[in-house]
């Protein structure tokens, strides 16, 4: 294609021709006057004619443009009038100045012009639109339809003064949102179901009734399959898999998984209740991902004691149930296996660091010293990471430091971090939460971590352990360590003071063998007594002074009884061992008639400690978990940082009220 400049050279404009003719006519005047005059008059005619023609064409072109603009304006008006979506134009004060037929059909109102939009449609924030110099969008439900409103401010300059109007386009998104909701409702949900302690439950019933229990469990779950329109498959004697739509899962959530209570009512003479644990995986990108989420949820449900449903998404957990205590397992095979594995891991390690939770109690310290003796029996040096001893373990720590057997047993946090290597074995006792440990940094430095704990599992968990001994039915971590000592392949010799520390830990968590005590608890205590534990010396570890008694009296005096079932109390005294005192006070409050649970608060420095106790009907673990704590169904606690005692008291009170409302 030739460019524009080339085109101009080849095809000169008409003005250039006129100029050339004028020059030629002037030049002819010098050669021939008559011919020159003739050409000159011809030149004048051409100039006049060209000017006249140009003006005519200009007027015609202007008229054409004007007619075209009028046509466009008319087309625009028709397009707006016949716009397939509702449209209205508002004054800045909200009055309707114009609307199309679709808007009239949408509102079904006879009088619209001059009416304020607020009287027709509520919840329109026009002031926000005026403050924003851009198009805005609002989602609104009007007469059962969902609309997305697009606001557009326009300037009308047809009058002397510029006038601003607001155009509202109403885009009906009802069908789209319904389609989106249908998509979410029909997403697959994977539910893994396991009967808790299936063998133990069957053994607790007469032999001729055991088949009836199994059939009744399957019949109840088949009923769930039918009502949820799902697909149920029994994968083993005590495990099932159920696939359903997300919409049906929402119904189960609304009912708070009533299936848990239905299963619990199965009674064919079985002494142990029939309960199930449910792990549900949803919102994964694939069915396989939902299955992995369901497996993780089931592990968490079992780790929290069973008899509950846990829903797991990619970023959160939701818990339902958890009303029953965990069933004690009579077999000690796992303790033997863990004991053997622990011995092998200790022998393969260069050094061993043992730590419990922050503000350790006798269960944590007794278990730590028990692991220390196991390491000594394996001819491996070990240290217990301890930053400071609180009053609850002060007497025991003092005895350990005075005994030559435990020389240099303790190491502080900084020294442990400095000397920790990848091959260093870290044994965590009496907690499974990383941020609850005495030194969380060690968990990132070592590649060999062992966790021994009996608390119900929370969302936070120490991952990538080489050995995990987590049994929530056990009374205490000291009981677990005692069983490891008993059933390791080679006899482990433990010191008398170690035995007393282990027995003190069991006594503390069972409240002198009153709470969560099973046959194996007494067997462990019997073993410790046999190897030298002195019960009088154990009792001395819990002796308190007069100030503690006065503080407990203050707590009891402040007690508020809620709904004749739950005690809520607090202490204004700031003491170093306030966490121990409030725990003892919480135990005392359970002696009040008809009281089923107690909550006691105390503060120290910038923290508020909460101690919760229950006789079993109220799951205090679930309540304390809402405050970031945890524990067991009947013994739990929490720590709140950077809040006042009054604020913490109000939070606990609110949680108790919510629990009572949900229960009703």
From TrEMBL:
Entry binding sites for Mn(2+) 1: 357, 361, 430
Top-rank EC class of the record's enzyme: hydrolase
Catalysed reactions listed for this entry: 3',3'-c-di-AMP + H2O = 5'-O-phosphonoadenylyl-(3'->5')-adenosine + H(+)
Top-rank lineage group of the source organism: Bacteria
Domain GGDEF span(s) in chain numbering: 186-314
Binding site for Mn(2+) 2: 363, 430, 454, 509
GO molecular function annotation: cyclic-di-AMP phosphodiesterase activity; hydrolase activity; metal ion binding; nucleic acid binding
Keywords, ordered alphabetically: Cell membrane, Hydrolase, Manganese, Membrane, Metal-binding, Transmembrane, Transmembrane helix
EC number(s) recorded for this UniProt protein: 3.1.4.-
Signal sequence, renumbered to the chain: none
Cofactor(s), by name: Mn(2+)
Descriptive protein name: Cyclic-di-AMP phosphodiesterase
Lineage: Bacteria, Bacillati, Bacillota, Clostridia, Peptostreptococcales
